[in-house]
């Protein structure tokens, strides 16, 4: 399976911790992708 790199740029207010924001965004994206893959697998059952 080939992989691709996508770069996203966000402008966030100074009061938001950029490292925490990045980590939460990564976790959200991973859960979303895994959720969609699981859903597609369940459709085949």
Structural summary, described in words:
The chain has one domain. It is elongated, with a radius of gyration of 15 Å. About 60% of the residues lie in helices and about 0% in strands. It is mainly alpha-helical and about 45 residues long. The model has no long low-confidence stretch (mean pLDDT about 90). The protein has one helix and no strands.
Number of helices: 1
State Rg: 15 Å
Which descriptor suits the 3D outline? Answer: elongated
Q: Total number of β-strand segments?
A: 0
| Low-pLDDT stretches | none
- N-to-C span: 23 Å
Helix content: 55-70%
* Rounded average pLDDT: 88
Proportion of β residues?
under 5%
What is the N-to-C succession of helices and strands? H
Number of domains: 1
């Amino acid at each position: 399976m080939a992989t691709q790199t996508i770069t996203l740029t966000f402008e966030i207010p100074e009061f938001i911790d950029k490292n925490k924001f990045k980590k939460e965004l990564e976790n959200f994206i991973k859960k979303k992708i895994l959720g969609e893959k699981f859903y597609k697998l369940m459709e085949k059952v």
